Amino acid sequence: MRNDPGDGPTRPVPGPDRDSPTRPVLNETTAEETTARTAGHGAGHGADHGAGHTAAHADTATTTAGAPTARVRSLTARLTGLVRSTFADTTPLRTPAYRRLWLAGIVTVIGAQLSVVAVPIQIYELTGSSAYVGLTGLFGLVPLVVFGLWGGAIADAVDRRVMLLFTGSGIALTSLALWVVAASGTGDVWFVLVLFALQSAMLAMNQPTRSAVIPRLIPPDQLPAANALNMTVVQVGAVLGPLLAGILIPLIGLATLYLIDAIALLATLWATWRLPPLPSSAPADGGNRQKVGLRAVVDGFRYVGMHRILLVSFLVDVIAMGFGMPRVVFPEMAATTFGGSAEGGIEQGLLFAAIPLGMVAGGVLSGWLQRVRRQGVAVVVAICVWGGGVAVFGLTGSLFLAVLALAVAGAGDLVSSVYRSSMLQTVATDEMRGRMQGVFIVVVAGGPRLADLWHGPTAEAVGPGLTATLGGLAVIVGTLVVVWRFPEFLRYRGPVAGGTAG
């Protein structure tokens, strides 16, 4: 409490009390003395009362002046809390190692998307055949499956920092090779496809390793926020990369896109170089280094079967993508339902962009994800939102509603992906995380291709809209059946600060 003018040592002290033994005893008191004493007492009392009264007024004035300030501070705190609970949680960015990787990833993801656009265009320029362009699916998928699984096993056996440096350098070198081929005009389509397959193999080994590193850098309770940040960056790159490629190719040429990709990768290599050593946590087998052959890959699948939370997380993702991804019907619906052209146009562009845009919006507004503990229930609800959005898309004849429904579906897919990735990073032990991330990469890459296989023939038989709707409804029914069979998934709770998952 502060010292006011009428408090403590600043207060006037009246003379000795009348009954005090220090007071001299007089037999007579003159009128003048009595008057003087009375005047002195009155003056002292008046000064004390006046000082106290002044202090009371000062307190009142201070309180009155401070009231608006307190209200402003309270309003500011509420607005800050609302923003933090609404927009993406950036707490993981306080960790320097994670922050460097994430910031470098922004540049690298956009650069990678430039190459994704450049490869099919280059192959079409070389051959003039869409059939050869279609081979990029085969040359990209096979290495992704094989080296995704094998690369995950390697990531569990070696220093993950070294693994990231090796595979990142490999991706950069293949981009440089593609640049040389495109700029010089040498090489044929098969050489380009082989380089593309080699780059896909390096990417397949890099991605599970990178995901397995994250839990070593940040606390478990921050994993949902970190995964939301990562996935938002990926989706932003998926939207901006093709747009930039379309703008840059007429200005600087197709070959330069590969060079930009290679240069952008330097940012990630720098961030990786700054990481601390991340040696394997796997126990040594008789003092020897852990083997990374077929047995290690099989052990990964066996591990999934023994942990039902992981098993269900993979099953529901296969159901969500295998039944629900409607991209095959976009061209036909753009032309027949929304009045566009099957060869392209704004209608088709909006349909293809709607899902990633919804995922970006979901990532930006992901602040609430960190507060959800019942993550199993959240995954089921999010996948049902995805399925419902796809089903509505198939039913509507309005382009606006179709794009909105797909965007809502994309936001649901982001929420599902965030929590499933967090489960994987939390439930799996560190010595198994690489292999689990390898399985995750295969599931994520393979699910949409399963949807492609049946959406095409079914759309030919019953129409594209009904096909999409049936797929969306199958997602909801299939997901509910799986969690009915494995109810422990619904009981799963994510970790809290200083705690564990359960």
UniProtKB/TrEMBL annotation:
InterPro entries: MFS_dom (IPR020846), MFS_trans_sf (IPR036259), TM_effector (IPR010290). It is a multi-pass membrane protein. Its main location: membrane. Coiled coil: none annotated. One of its GO terms (cellular component) is plasma membrane. Keywords: Cell membrane, Membrane, Transmembrane, Transmembrane helix, Transport. Residues 293-502 form the Major facilitator superfamily (MFS) profile domain. Residues 52-69 have a biased composition (Low complexity). Pfam families: MFS_3 (PF05977). PROSITE patterns: MFS. Residues 1-69 are annotated as: Disordered. It is found in: Cell inner membrane. The keyword Cell membrane applies. GO terms for molecular function: transmembrane transporter activity. The chain crosses the membrane at residues 101-124, 130-150, 162-183, 227-249, 309-330, 350-369, 376-393, 462-484. The keyword Chaperone does not apply. This is Predicted arabinose efflux permease, MFS family.
